[in-house]
Protein backbone atom coordinates (compact mmCIF):
# COMPACT_ATOMS: atom_id res chain seq x y z
CA UNK A 1 0.00 0.00 0.00
CA UNK A 2 1.45 3.37 -1.09
CA UNK A 3 0.56 6.33 1.13
CA UNK A 4 1.61 9.89 0.34
CA UNK A 5 1.90 12.32 3.24
CA UNK A 6 1.62 16.07 2.67
CA UNK A 7 2.12 19.18 4.78
CA UNK A 8 1.49 22.61 3.26
CA UNK A 9 0.21 26.18 3.55
CA UNK A 10 1.84 27.23 6.80
CA UNK A 11 5.63 26.87 6.61
CA UNK A 12 8.10 24.18 5.52
CA UNK A 13 5.73 22.24 3.29
CA UNK A 14 6.86 18.71 2.50
CA UNK A 15 5.89 15.34 1.05
CA UNK A 16 6.68 11.77 2.08
CA UNK A 17 6.00 8.33 0.64
CA UNK A 18 5.33 5.35 2.90
CA UNK A 19 4.95 1.85 1.42
CA UNK A 20 3.58 -0.87 3.68
CA UNK A 21 4.85 1.06 6.69
CA UNK A 22 8.37 1.63 5.32
CA UNK A 23 9.56 5.17 4.63
CA UNK A 24 10.55 5.33 0.96
CA UNK A 25 11.18 9.05 0.42
CA UNK A 26 10.72 12.42 2.11
CA UNK A 27 11.69 15.98 1.22
CA UNK A 28 10.78 19.62 1.86
CA UNK A 29 9.48 21.73 -1.00
CA UNK A 30 12.01 24.50 -0.31
CA UNK A 31 14.87 22.30 -1.51
CA UNK A 32 13.39 22.17 -5.02
CA UNK A 33 11.78 25.61 -5.27
CA UNK A 34 14.77 27.37 -3.64
CA UNK A 35 12.40 29.50 -1.56
CA UNK A 36 13.35 29.15 2.11
CA UNK A 37 10.55 27.78 4.32
CA UNK A 38 8.36 27.44 1.23
CA UNK A 39 4.77 26.96 2.41
CA UNK A 40 3.15 26.31 -0.97
CA UNK A 41 1.57 23.04 -2.02
CA UNK A 42 4.63 20.76 -2.39
CA UNK A 43 4.30 19.91 -6.08
CA UNK A 44 8.02 19.25 -6.58
CA UNK A 45 8.43 17.24 -3.37
CA UNK A 46 5.42 15.09 -4.32
CA UNK A 47 6.82 14.44 -7.78
CA UNK A 48 10.16 13.45 -6.27
CA UNK A 49 8.58 11.05 -3.75
CA UNK A 50 6.42 9.34 -6.38
CA UNK A 51 9.37 9.03 -8.76
CA UNK A 52 11.69 7.71 -6.03
CA UNK A 53 9.10 5.08 -5.15
CA UNK A 54 8.27 4.24 -8.77
CA UNK A 55 4.59 4.95 -8.08
CA UNK A 56 2.58 5.05 -11.29
CA UNK A 57 -0.81 6.65 -12.00
CA UNK A 58 -2.79 3.68 -10.67
CA UNK A 59 -0.53 2.74 -7.74
CA UNK A 60 -1.17 5.42 -5.11
CA UNK A 61 -3.68 4.21 -2.54
CA UNK A 62 -4.01 7.07 -0.07
CA UNK A 63 -3.02 10.68 0.61
CA UNK A 64 -2.75 11.96 4.18
CA UNK A 65 -2.76 15.70 4.87
CA UNK A 66 -1.12 16.65 8.16
CA UNK A 67 -4.00 18.53 9.78
CA UNK A 68 -7.71 19.32 9.52
CA UNK A 69 -8.09 22.62 7.64
CA UNK A 70 -11.79 23.06 8.46
CA UNK A 71 -11.16 22.59 12.20
CA UNK A 72 -8.25 25.03 12.08
CA UNK A 73 -10.39 27.62 10.29
CA UNK A 74 -13.15 27.14 12.86
CA UNK A 75 -10.61 27.86 15.62
CA UNK A 76 -9.46 31.02 13.85
CA UNK A 77 -13.03 32.26 13.40
CA UNK A 78 -14.00 31.44 16.97
CA UNK A 79 -10.92 33.24 18.27
CA UNK A 80 -11.61 36.39 16.28
CA UNK A 81 -15.30 36.41 17.20
CA UNK A 82 -14.42 36.09 20.90
CA UNK A 83 -12.22 39.20 20.86
CA UNK A 84 -14.25 41.32 18.40
CA UNK A 85 -14.13 44.15 17.55
CA UNK A 86 -10.42 43.86 18.31
CA UNK A 87 -8.38 41.99 15.75
CA UNK A 88 -10.52 43.04 12.78
CA UNK A 89 -7.52 44.02 10.65
CA UNK A 90 -5.75 40.73 11.34
CA UNK A 91 -8.93 38.76 10.61
CA UNK A 92 -9.53 40.57 7.32
CA UNK A 93 -5.96 39.79 6.27
CA UNK A 94 -6.29 36.10 7.14
CA UNK A 95 -9.75 35.51 5.67
CA UNK A 96 -8.99 35.76 1.91
CA UNK A 97 -6.25 33.14 1.90
CA UNK A 98 -8.51 30.72 3.79
CA UNK A 99 -11.47 31.27 1.50
CA UNK A 100 -9.38 31.10 -1.67
CA UNK A 101 -6.95 28.34 -0.81
CA UNK A 102 -6.59 26.72 2.61
CA UNK A 103 -10.17 25.48 2.88
CA UNK A 104 -9.93 23.74 -0.48
CA UNK A 105 -7.10 21.28 0.20
CA UNK A 106 -9.11 18.22 -0.99
CA UNK A 107 -9.82 19.92 -4.31
CA UNK A 108 -6.18 21.00 -4.63
CA UNK A 109 -5.04 17.42 -4.09
CA UNK A 110 -7.57 16.05 -6.57
CA UNK A 111 -6.57 18.64 -9.15
CA UNK A 112 -2.90 17.73 -8.80
CA UNK A 113 -3.53 14.04 -9.48
CA UNK A 114 -5.96 14.78 -12.32
CA UNK A 115 -3.33 16.90 -14.04
CA UNK A 116 -0.69 14.24 -13.34
CA UNK A 117 -2.77 11.71 -15.28
CA UNK A 118 -3.73 9.45 -12.37
CA UNK A 119 -6.42 6.99 -13.42
CA UNK A 120 -8.01 6.87 -10.00
CA UNK A 121 -8.07 9.31 -7.11
CA UNK A 122 -6.40 8.07 -3.90
CA UNK A 123 -8.40 8.02 -0.70
CA UNK A 124 -7.92 11.17 1.40
CA UNK A 125 -7.22 11.25 5.14
CA UNK A 126 -6.91 14.24 7.48
CA UNK A 127 -5.36 13.36 10.86
CA UNK A 128 -5.24 16.13 13.45
CA UNK A 129 -2.10 18.28 13.50
CA UNK A 130 -0.73 17.00 16.80
CA UNK A 131 -1.76 13.47 15.96
CA UNK A 132 0.52 13.78 12.91
CA UNK A 133 3.34 15.11 15.09
CA UNK A 134 2.85 12.31 17.61
CA UNK A 135 2.78 9.67 14.87
CA UNK A 136 6.01 11.06 13.39
CA UNK A 137 7.60 10.78 16.83
CA UNK A 138 6.44 7.31 17.86
CA UNK A 139 6.00 5.13 14.79
CA UNK A 140 9.55 5.54 13.37
CA UNK A 141 11.10 5.33 16.87
CA UNK A 142 13.04 2.31 18.16
CA UNK A 143 10.50 1.68 20.92
CA UNK A 144 7.69 -0.85 21.06
CA UNK A 145 5.98 1.41 23.61
CA UNK A 146 6.66 4.96 24.77
CA UNK A 147 5.26 8.20 26.10
CA UNK A 148 4.89 10.79 23.35
CA UNK A 149 5.24 14.54 23.88
CA UNK A 150 4.43 17.07 21.15
CA UNK A 151 5.06 20.81 21.51
CA UNK A 152 4.67 23.55 18.90
CA UNK A 153 2.82 26.79 18.17
CA UNK A 154 -0.67 25.54 17.44
CA UNK A 155 -2.48 22.98 15.31
CA UNK A 156 -6.26 23.00 15.21
CA UNK A 157 -6.67 23.80 18.93
CA UNK A 158 -3.90 21.81 20.61
CA UNK A 159 -0.53 23.43 21.29
CA UNK A 160 1.04 20.59 23.31
CA UNK A 161 -0.02 16.99 23.87
CA UNK A 162 0.93 13.97 25.92
CA UNK A 163 0.29 10.66 24.21
CA UNK A 164 0.95 6.96 24.67
CA UNK A 165 2.17 4.70 21.91
CA UNK A 166 2.10 0.92 22.04
CA UNK A 167 2.73 -1.29 19.00
CA UNK A 168 0.62 0.09 16.17
CA UNK A 169 -1.61 2.12 18.48
CA UNK A 170 -1.25 5.75 19.54
CA UNK A 171 -3.55 7.59 21.92
CA UNK A 172 -3.53 11.28 22.86
CA UNK A 173 -4.14 11.44 26.62
CA UNK A 174 -3.89 15.12 27.43
CA UNK A 175 -3.57 18.43 25.56
CA UNK A 176 -3.00 22.12 26.14
CA UNK A 177 -5.05 24.45 23.95
CA UNK A 178 -4.64 27.71 22.07
CA UNK A 179 -3.82 30.51 22.85
CA UNK A 180 -1.70 29.03 25.64
CA UNK A 181 1.35 27.74 23.79
CA UNK A 182 5.01 27.14 24.56
CA UNK A 183 5.88 27.50 20.88
CA UNK A 184 4.13 30.86 20.62
CA UNK A 185 5.69 32.03 23.90
CA UNK A 186 9.17 31.26 22.57
CA UNK A 187 8.29 32.86 19.22
CA UNK A 188 7.14 36.01 21.02
CA UNK A 189 10.65 36.41 22.42
CA UNK A 190 12.10 35.53 19.01
CA UNK A 191 10.13 38.43 17.55
CA UNK A 192 10.91 40.81 20.42
CA UNK A 193 14.67 40.23 20.17
CA UNK A 194 14.60 41.11 16.47
CA UNK A 195 14.59 37.70 14.77
CA UNK A 196 12.06 36.29 12.35
CA UNK A 197 9.30 34.07 13.79
CA UNK A 198 9.33 30.45 12.54
CA UNK A 199 12.97 30.65 11.48
CA UNK A 200 14.82 32.77 14.04
CA UNK A 201 14.16 30.53 17.04
CA UNK A 202 17.52 28.81 16.39
CA UNK A 203 19.22 32.18 16.69
CA UNK A 204 17.51 32.94 19.99
CA UNK A 205 18.67 29.57 21.32
CA UNK A 206 22.23 30.25 20.12
CA UNK A 207 22.22 33.71 21.67
CA UNK A 208 21.03 32.49 25.08
CA UNK A 209 24.45 31.40 26.46
CA UNK A 210 25.75 34.97 26.10
CA UNK A 211 23.19 36.26 28.60
CA UNK A 212 22.10 35.85 32.20
CA UNK A 213 18.63 34.60 33.29
CA UNK A 214 17.74 37.95 34.83
CA UNK A 215 14.19 38.03 33.45
CA UNK A 216 13.06 34.57 34.56
CA UNK A 217 11.06 35.78 37.55
CA UNK A 218 9.55 38.60 35.51
CA UNK A 219 8.40 36.11 32.87
CA UNK A 220 6.93 33.68 35.40
CA UNK A 221 5.30 36.36 37.52
CA UNK A 222 3.68 38.28 34.67
CA UNK A 223 3.37 36.23 31.51
CA UNK A 224 2.21 32.79 32.59
CA UNK A 225 0.49 30.84 35.32
CA UNK A 226 2.60 27.67 35.35
CA UNK A 227 1.37 24.44 36.92
CA UNK A 228 3.35 21.49 38.25
CA UNK A 229 2.51 19.34 35.21
CA UNK A 230 3.91 21.93 32.78
CA UNK A 231 0.53 23.21 31.66
CA UNK A 232 0.06 26.96 31.84
CA UNK A 233 -2.13 29.86 30.93
CA UNK A 234 -0.61 32.89 29.24
CA UNK A 235 -1.57 36.40 30.32
CA UNK A 236 -2.79 37.59 26.94
CA UNK A 237 -2.61 41.24 28.03
CA UNK A 238 1.05 41.13 27.00
CA UNK A 239 0.73 39.46 23.59
CA UNK A 240 -0.43 40.75 20.21
CA UNK A 241 -1.02 37.60 18.20
CA UNK A 242 -4.72 37.38 19.09
CA UNK A 243 -5.86 40.91 18.31
CA UNK A 244 -2.96 42.51 16.43
CA UNK A 245 -0.36 41.99 13.72
CA UNK A 246 2.63 41.42 15.99
CA UNK A 247 3.56 38.74 18.51
CA UNK A 248 3.94 41.22 21.41
CA UNK A 249 2.43 44.58 22.34
CA UNK A 250 3.33 47.81 24.15
CA UNK A 251 2.67 46.28 27.57
CA UNK A 252 5.20 43.52 26.78
CA UNK A 253 7.72 46.21 25.81
CA UNK A 254 7.13 48.09 29.08
CA UNK A 255 7.69 44.90 31.05
CA UNK A 256 10.99 44.18 29.29
CA UNK A 257 12.62 47.61 29.35
CA UNK A 258 11.77 49.13 26.00
CA UNK A 259 10.62 48.42 22.47
CA UNK A 260 11.45 45.32 20.47
CA UNK A 261 14.88 45.25 18.85
CA UNK A 262 14.87 46.14 15.18
CA UNK A 263 16.11 43.42 12.87
CA UNK A 264 19.81 43.68 11.94
CA UNK A 265 20.50 46.27 14.67
CA UNK A 266 23.23 45.78 17.27
CA UNK A 267 22.48 43.14 19.89
CA UNK A 268 22.51 44.48 23.44
CA UNK A 269 22.87 42.77 26.81
CA UNK A 270 19.06 43.00 27.15
CA UNK A 271 18.51 40.72 24.16
CA UNK A 272 21.09 38.25 25.44
CA UNK A 273 19.48 38.18 28.88
CA UNK A 274 16.00 37.81 27.39
CA UNK A 275 17.20 34.91 25.25
CA UNK A 276 18.77 33.18 28.26
CA UNK A 277 15.70 33.79 30.40
CA UNK A 278 13.12 32.39 27.99
CA UNK A 279 15.41 29.43 27.34
CA UNK A 280 15.52 28.68 31.08
CA UNK A 281 11.72 28.99 31.31
CA UNK A 282 11.29 26.72 28.29
CA UNK A 283 13.53 24.07 29.83
CA UNK A 284 11.54 24.22 33.07
CA UNK A 285 8.25 23.73 31.20
CA UNK A 286 9.62 20.85 29.11
CA UNK A 287 10.89 19.07 32.23
CA UNK A 288 7.55 19.49 33.98
CA UNK A 289 5.67 18.14 30.96
CA UNK A 290 8.06 15.21 30.69
CA UNK A 291 7.52 14.30 34.35
CA UNK A 292 3.76 14.48 33.79
CA UNK A 293 4.11 12.21 30.75
CA UNK A 294 6.12 9.68 32.74
CA UNK A 295 3.56 9.66 35.54
CA UNK A 296 0.62 9.46 33.13
CA UNK A 297 1.97 6.61 30.99
CA UNK A 298 4.38 4.76 33.27
CA UNK A 299 6.72 4.38 30.29
CA UNK A 300 10.52 4.46 30.44
CA UNK A 301 10.86 5.73 26.84
CA UNK A 302 9.92 9.18 25.52
CA UNK A 303 9.40 10.32 21.91
CA UNK A 304 9.33 14.01 20.97
CA UNK A 305 8.08 16.03 17.98
CA UNK A 306 6.75 19.50 17.18
CA UNK A 307 8.77 22.63 16.54
CA UNK A 308 9.82 23.01 20.18
CA UNK A 309 11.43 19.55 19.98
CA UNK A 310 14.08 21.16 17.74
CA UNK A 311 15.31 23.09 20.80
CA UNK A 312 18.35 20.87 21.23
CA UNK A 313 19.48 22.70 24.38
CA UNK A 314 16.22 21.81 26.14
CA UNK A 315 16.55 18.27 24.76
CA UNK A 316 20.00 17.98 26.33
CA UNK A 317 18.65 19.18 29.67
CA UNK A 318 15.83 16.63 29.41
CA UNK A 319 18.28 13.82 28.62
CA UNK A 320 20.47 14.66 31.62
CA UNK A 321 17.44 14.93 33.94
CA UNK A 322 17.00 11.13 33.58
CA UNK A 323 13.20 11.40 33.79
CA UNK A 324 13.10 8.74 31.08
CA UNK A 325 15.65 6.03 30.43
CA UNK A 326 15.55 6.58 26.67
CA UNK A 327 14.78 9.57 24.47
CA UNK A 328 14.06 9.70 20.71
CA UNK A 329 13.35 12.89 18.77
CA UNK A 330 11.93 13.02 15.24
CA UNK A 331 14.69 14.65 13.11
CA UNK A 332 12.05 16.51 11.06
CA UNK A 333 10.22 17.55 14.21
CA UNK A 334 8.54 20.63 12.70
CA UNK A 335 5.69 20.86 10.23
CA UNK A 336 7.67 19.09 7.48
CA UNK A 337 7.70 15.98 9.64
CA UNK A 338 3.93 16.23 9.99
CA UNK A 339 3.70 14.90 6.44
CA UNK A 340 5.52 11.75 7.52
CA UNK A 341 3.44 11.38 10.66
CA UNK A 342 0.21 11.74 8.71
CA UNK A 343 1.18 8.92 6.32
CA UNK A 344 2.28 6.64 9.17
CA UNK A 345 -0.92 7.42 11.09
CA UNK A 346 -2.95 6.17 8.14
CA UNK A 347 -0.92 2.96 7.88
CA UNK A 348 -0.96 2.06 11.55
CA UNK A 349 -4.08 3.72 12.94
CA UNK A 350 -6.53 3.82 10.02
CA UNK A 351 -5.39 0.58 8.38
CA UNK A 352 -4.72 -1.13 11.74
CA UNK A 353 -1.32 -2.38 10.63
CA UNK A 354 1.11 -3.60 13.33
CA UNK A 355 4.67 -2.42 13.80
CA UNK A 356 7.78 -3.95 15.31
CA UNK A 357 10.67 -2.23 17.03
CA UNK A 358 13.93 -3.67 18.39
CA UNK A 359 14.54 -0.98 21.01
CA UNK A 360 17.76 0.20 19.31
CA UNK A 361 17.29 1.07 15.63
CA UNK A 362 14.78 3.62 14.35
CA UNK A 363 13.11 3.56 10.93
CA UNK A 364 14.41 6.91 9.64
CA UNK A 365 17.42 5.49 7.74
CA UNK A 366 19.57 8.26 9.16
CA UNK A 367 17.00 10.74 7.75
CA UNK A 368 18.71 10.34 4.36
CA UNK A 369 15.42 10.21 2.48
CA UNK A 370 15.86 12.79 -0.28
CA UNK A 371 17.20 12.59 -3.85
CA UNK A 372 20.64 11.23 -4.75
CA UNK A 373 22.52 12.82 -7.67
CA UNK A 374 25.83 10.98 -7.38
CA UNK A 375 25.31 9.10 -10.65
CA UNK A 376 24.71 12.32 -12.59
CA UNK A 377 27.70 14.33 -11.33
CA UNK A 378 30.13 13.21 -14.04
CA UNK A 379 27.83 14.29 -16.86
CA UNK A 380 27.05 17.56 -15.07
CA UNK A 381 30.73 18.46 -14.74
CA UNK A 382 31.47 17.44 -18.32
CA UNK A 383 28.56 19.45 -19.71
CA UNK A 384 29.57 22.55 -17.74
CA UNK A 385 33.30 22.19 -18.28
CA UNK A 386 34.11 22.32 -14.57
CA UNK A 387 37.50 20.69 -13.77
CA UNK A 388 37.49 18.09 -10.99
CA UNK A 389 39.56 15.32 -9.45
CA UNK A 390 37.82 11.94 -9.75
CA UNK A 391 38.35 9.44 -6.92
CA UNK A 392 35.99 6.49 -7.32
CA UNK A 393 37.42 4.48 -4.42
CA UNK A 394 35.77 5.74 -1.20
CA UNK A 395 38.78 5.27 1.10
CA UNK A 396 41.34 7.22 -0.96
CA UNK A 397 38.67 9.86 -1.52
CA UNK A 398 38.05 10.11 2.23
CA UNK A 399 41.81 10.40 2.84
CA UNK A 400 42.07 13.20 0.28
CA UNK A 401 39.17 15.11 1.86
CA UNK A 402 40.73 14.64 5.30
CA UNK A 403 43.97 16.13 3.96
CA UNK A 404 42.09 19.14 2.58
CA UNK A 405 40.39 19.71 5.95
CA UNK A 406 43.73 19.39 7.78
CA UNK A 407 45.17 22.06 5.47
CA UNK A 408 42.57 24.47 6.92
CA UNK A 409 40.25 24.56 3.94
CA UNK A 410 36.47 24.84 3.98
CA UNK A 411 34.68 22.16 1.95
CA UNK A 412 31.13 21.87 0.64
CA UNK A 413 29.88 18.29 0.45
CA UNK A 414 27.04 16.89 -1.67
CA UNK A 415 26.90 13.10 -1.59
CA UNK A 416 24.25 10.41 -1.31
CA UNK A 417 20.63 11.08 -0.46
CA UNK A 418 19.62 14.52 0.81
CA UNK A 419 18.62 14.83 4.46
CA UNK A 420 14.97 15.23 5.52
CA UNK A 421 14.50 17.88 8.19
CA UNK A 422 16.30 21.12 9.05
CA UNK A 423 19.71 19.60 9.81
CA UNK A 424 22.48 18.79 7.35
CA UNK A 425 23.96 15.48 8.45
CA UNK A 426 26.95 15.04 6.16
CA UNK A 427 25.29 14.73 2.75
CA UNK A 428 24.51 18.43 2.18
CA UNK A 429 27.08 19.92 4.56
CA UNK A 430 29.92 22.41 4.80
CA UNK A 431 32.77 20.89 6.79
CA UNK A 432 36.03 22.10 8.32
CA UNK A 433 38.61 21.61 11.06
CA UNK A 434 37.14 21.79 14.57
CA UNK A 435 40.63 22.44 15.98
CA UNK A 436 40.92 25.81 14.21
CA UNK A 437 40.37 28.90 16.40
CA UNK A 438 39.52 31.01 13.32
CA UNK A 439 37.13 28.58 11.62
CA UNK A 440 33.89 29.69 13.38
CA UNK A 441 34.40 33.33 12.42
CA UNK A 442 35.52 32.43 8.89
CA UNK A 443 32.54 30.19 8.23
CA UNK A 444 30.00 32.61 9.70
CA UNK A 445 31.20 35.77 7.97
CA UNK A 446 32.78 34.54 4.72
CA UNK A 447 30.80 31.39 3.94
CA UNK A 448 27.39 31.54 5.60
CA UNK A 449 27.01 35.35 5.66
CA UNK A 450 25.28 35.18 9.03
CA UNK A 451 25.62 36.52 12.56
CA UNK A 452 29.05 35.89 14.05
CA UNK A 453 27.68 34.69 17.41
CA UNK A 454 26.02 31.59 15.99
CA UNK A 455 27.76 28.31 16.89
CA UNK A 456 28.67 25.41 14.64
CA UNK A 457 28.04 21.76 15.34
CA UNK A 458 30.54 18.91 15.54
CA UNK A 459 30.24 15.66 13.62
CA UNK A 460 31.90 13.00 15.72
CA UNK A 461 32.62 9.30 15.24
CA UNK A 462 29.91 7.55 17.24
CA UNK A 463 32.46 5.46 19.15
CA UNK A 464 34.42 8.59 20.13
CA UNK A 465 31.61 10.82 21.41
CA UNK A 466 32.48 10.20 25.06
CA UNK A 467 36.08 11.27 24.40
CA UNK A 468 35.00 14.78 23.48
CA UNK A 469 31.64 15.41 25.13
CA UNK A 470 29.78 14.71 28.38
CA UNK A 471 27.48 12.33 26.56
CA UNK A 472 27.10 8.57 26.61
CA UNK A 473 24.34 8.10 24.00
CA UNK A 474 24.28 8.49 20.21
CA UNK A 475 22.96 11.74 18.73
CA UNK A 476 22.60 10.94 15.02
CA UNK A 477 20.27 13.84 14.19
CA UNK A 478 22.12 16.73 15.87
CA UNK A 479 19.25 17.25 18.33
CA UNK A 480 21.10 17.07 21.63
CA UNK A 481 23.45 19.60 23.23
CA UNK A 482 26.18 18.35 25.55
CA UNK A 483 29.11 19.94 27.36
CA UNK A 484 32.62 19.59 26.00
CA UNK A 485 34.66 17.47 28.41
CA UNK A 486 36.23 19.68 31.07
CA UNK A 487 39.75 18.37 30.49
CA UNK A 488 39.53 19.77 26.94
CA UNK A 489 38.33 23.22 28.02
CA UNK A 490 40.28 26.43 28.60
CA UNK A 491 39.43 29.71 30.33
CA UNK A 492 36.51 28.37 32.32
CA UNK A 493 37.03 31.04 34.96
CA UNK A 494 36.42 33.80 32.39
CA UNK A 495 32.91 32.73 31.40
CA UNK A 496 30.66 35.79 31.10
CA UNK A 497 33.38 38.37 31.87
CA UNK A 498 34.43 39.25 28.32
CA UNK A 499 32.45 41.39 25.82
CA UNK A 500 30.49 39.42 23.25
CA UNK A 501 32.90 40.05 20.36
CA UNK A 502 35.85 38.86 22.43
CA UNK A 503 33.93 35.88 23.77
CA UNK A 504 33.08 34.75 20.22
CA UNK A 505 36.76 34.55 19.29
CA UNK A 506 37.93 33.12 22.61
CA UNK A 507 39.76 29.78 22.36
CA UNK A 508 37.64 27.74 24.75
CA UNK A 509 38.92 24.19 24.14
CA UNK A 510 41.17 22.12 21.93
CA UNK A 511 38.20 21.96 19.50
CA UNK A 512 37.36 25.69 19.66
CA UNK A 513 35.45 25.98 16.38
CA UNK A 514 32.57 23.88 17.74
CA UNK A 515 32.75 24.92 21.42
CA UNK A 516 30.05 27.50 22.23
CA UNK A 517 30.57 30.25 24.80
CA UNK A 518 29.06 28.09 27.55
CA UNK A 519 31.37 25.19 26.60
CA UNK A 520 28.55 23.27 24.97
CA UNK A 521 28.13 21.74 21.52
CA UNK A 522 25.21 20.49 19.42
CA UNK A 523 26.50 17.01 18.72
CA UNK A 524 26.02 14.75 15.71
CA UNK A 525 27.33 11.22 16.05
CA UNK A 526 28.20 9.51 12.76
CA UNK A 527 27.63 5.80 12.33
CA UNK A 528 29.22 3.73 9.52
CA UNK A 529 25.99 1.80 9.04
CA UNK A 530 23.87 4.84 8.11
CA UNK A 531 26.47 7.02 6.34
CA UNK A 532 29.69 5.16 5.48
CA UNK A 533 31.04 7.89 3.19
CA UNK A 534 30.80 10.61 5.84
CA UNK A 535 32.10 8.25 8.52
CA UNK A 536 35.11 7.43 6.33
CA UNK A 537 35.99 11.13 6.02
CA UNK A 538 36.02 11.64 9.79
CA UNK A 539 37.84 8.34 10.34
CA UNK A 540 40.52 9.39 7.84
CA UNK A 541 40.80 12.76 9.57
CA UNK A 542 41.29 10.97 12.89
CA UNK A 543 43.99 8.77 11.38
CA UNK A 544 45.74 11.89 10.12
CA UNK A 545 45.33 14.20 13.13
CA UNK A 546 44.24 12.12 16.11
CA UNK A 547 40.87 13.94 16.21
CA UNK A 548 37.69 12.01 15.32
CA UNK A 549 35.57 15.16 15.10
CA UNK A 550 35.05 17.91 12.48
CA UNK A 551 32.79 20.94 11.94
CA UNK A 552 29.47 20.37 10.19
CA UNK A 553 27.09 23.13 9.14
CA UNK A 554 24.36 23.14 6.52
CA UNK A 555 25.38 23.75 2.90
CA UNK A 556 23.69 27.10 2.24
CA UNK A 557 24.09 30.80 2.78
CA UNK A 558 21.86 32.95 4.92
CA UNK A 559 18.40 33.27 3.44
CA UNK A 560 18.80 30.27 1.12
CA UNK A 561 17.56 26.69 1.64
CA UNK A 562 20.08 23.89 1.99
CA UNK A 563 21.33 22.87 -1.45
CA UNK A 564 19.72 19.95 -3.23
CA UNK A 565 21.36 19.40 -6.62
CA UNK A 566 24.98 19.58 -7.82
CA UNK A 567 24.05 22.79 -9.64
CA UNK A 568 22.73 24.35 -6.40
CA UNK A 569 25.94 23.31 -4.68
CA UNK A 570 28.26 24.66 -7.38
CA UNK A 571 26.47 28.02 -7.40
CA UNK A 572 26.76 28.36 -3.60
CA UNK A 573 30.39 27.18 -3.76
CA UNK A 574 31.35 29.88 -6.25
CA UNK A 575 29.41 32.65 -4.51
CA UNK A 576 31.23 32.16 -1.22
CA UNK A 577 34.81 31.79 -0.02
CA UNK A 578 34.60 28.01 0.18
CA UNK A 579 37.85 26.37 -0.94
CA UNK A 580 36.74 22.94 -2.22
CA UNK A 581 33.56 21.20 -3.31
CA UNK A 582 32.87 17.46 -3.08
CA UNK A 583 30.22 16.19 -5.51
CA UNK A 584 29.85 12.44 -5.06
CA UNK A 585 33.11 10.90 -6.30
CA UNK A 586 34.50 14.23 -7.53
CA UNK A 587 36.55 16.92 -5.74
CA UNK A 588 36.62 20.47 -7.15
CA UNK A 589 39.31 23.02 -6.26
CA UNK A 590 38.07 26.64 -6.30
CA UNK A 591 41.38 27.86 -7.76
CA UNK A 592 40.90 25.66 -10.83
CA UNK A 593 37.34 26.75 -11.67
CA UNK A 594 36.50 29.14 -14.51
CA UNK A 595 35.61 32.74 -13.50
CA UNK A 596 32.14 32.97 -11.99
CA UNK A 597 29.76 35.49 -13.56
CA UNK A 598 27.34 36.81 -10.96
CA UNK A 599 25.25 39.93 -10.70
CA UNK A 600 26.56 42.27 -8.04
CA UNK A 601 23.41 42.30 -5.87
CA UNK A 602 22.69 38.54 -5.90
CA UNK A 603 22.18 38.41 -2.14
CA UNK A 604 19.17 40.72 -2.43
CA UNK A 605 17.30 37.84 -4.08
CA UNK A 606 17.08 36.13 -0.71
CA UNK A 607 14.85 36.99 2.22
CA UNK A 608 17.26 37.37 5.11
CA UNK A 609 16.09 35.48 8.17
Report on the architecture of this protein.
The chain has a domain at 369-605: Carbamoyltransferase, C-terminal domain (DHBP synthase), CATH 3.90.870. With 609 residues, the protein is an alpha/beta fold. The chain contains 20 helices and 23 strands. The strands form five sheets. It has a nine-stranded mixed beta sheet, with helices on both faces. Helix 6 crosses helix 13 and helix 15 packs across helix 19. Residues 602-609 have low confidence and may be disordered. The chain is globular, with a radius of gyration of 23 Å. The two termini are 40 Å apart.
> How would you describe the shape?
globular
| CATH architecture call of the domain at 369-605 | Alpha-Beta Complex
Strand content: 15-25%
Number of strands: 23
How many individual helices?
20
CATH-defined topology of the domain at 369-605: DHBP synthase
Please give the share of residues in helix.
Answer: 25-40%
